[in-house]
Design goal:
By secondary structure, the chain is mainly alpha-helical. 79% of the residues lie in helices and 0% in strands. Helix 6 packs parallel to helix 9. The chain is globular.
Length: 277
């Protein structure tokens, strides 16, 4: 696939999340008391049903025959080589930070809303707006990346994540929660898709399994930690301090983006000087 089309393909894959934004919160609101008096058991049971439907659909997909390659593993770079690549590390850092921050704050947001006196339905509606903000931009994020470049889109996403925290720290009204959750979703979309698109430019075709495997291990391991620790963090440090975490993380990622850009500019200048000579 040509490079300009990769970011658009990544965006289109995520469009399915729009349906999840509508279906998921509705399941919580309508089925949370289905197995009363056990709270939310009905919602989890309904979610399990959706997983089974997804599993059935996957069995209908055509069998994919693996491509045979004559390239030996020794021909590609190792994980240690990728770790030494500043662009690869920056893509992983920004993607992981965007995703983990989103999971960390999103998981605690309904707890904070209920803790501030809002109902479960209002909290579910907030999550619905958040998920819509996560996936609706996928309709055009790929085109924005093709036009402005991965780094600018990543930077915009990181700034939205920090703005999300600023809004959350500004107040605890329903409007503050909804706006911060929308910004959280938009920031994730730009940050994650932009980082994934940048990552695809750091390896060759026969290196993709090594690069993607290393990225996914770091990324989803961090996301799992963020999700699982969110509830504990909410109880121990509170909603306000949780939102402060986005600022240092965002600044570190922006600094990494700036460093990589400066490094590549210097390399281009040196290359041009060598050509002129």
């Amino acid at each position: 696939m040509d490079a300009p089309l990769k970011s658009q393909a990544i965006s289109r894959v995520l469009i399915g999340g729009i349906a999840a934004a509508v279906i998921g919160p509705q399941i919580v609101m309508h089925n949370k008391d289905l197995l009363y008096p056990t709270p939310f058991a009905g919602a989890f049971l309904s979610g399990a049903g959706l997983f089974l439907i997804g599993l059935f659909v996957m069995t209908l997909l055509p069998h994919q025959i693996p491509e045979k390659q004559n390239i030996q593993r020794s021909d590609g770079r190792t994980k240690q080589d990728f770790i030494k690549d500043p662009t690869f590390i920056t893509a992983v850092l920004c993607g992981t930070s965007s995703y983990a921050l989103m999971a960390f704050v999103m998981t605690a947001a309904p707890l904070a809303m209920v803790g501030c006196g809002f109902g479960v339905s209002e909290a579910a509606l907030g999550i619905q707006w958040h998920i819509l903000a996560m996936f609706v931009p996928s309709l055009f994020t790929g085109k924005l990346i093709s036009r402005f470049g991965q780094r600018k889109i990543i930077a915009a996403g990181l700034m939205m994540l920090m703005l999300c925290s600023a809004v959350a720290l500004a107040g605890i009204t329903l409007e503050h929660f909804y706006l911060s959750l929308i910004l959280l979703g938009l920031g994730w979309n730009f940050g994650f898709i932009g980082s994934t698109a940048l990552l695809t430019e750091t390896y060759r075709a026969h290196e993709k399994h090594t690069a993607q495997g290393l990225n996914d291990s770091i990324l989803f391991g961090s996301v799992a930690i963020g999700s699982l620790s969110s509830g504990v963090a909410y109880e121990l440090i509170g909603w306000e301090f949780m939102n402060w975490i986005a600022f240092p993380v965002g600044l570190v990622c922006l600094s990494a983006l700036f460093f990589v850009k400066q490094r590549q500019s210097s390399e281009l200048q040196l290359s041009a000087s060598g050509t002129d000579a």
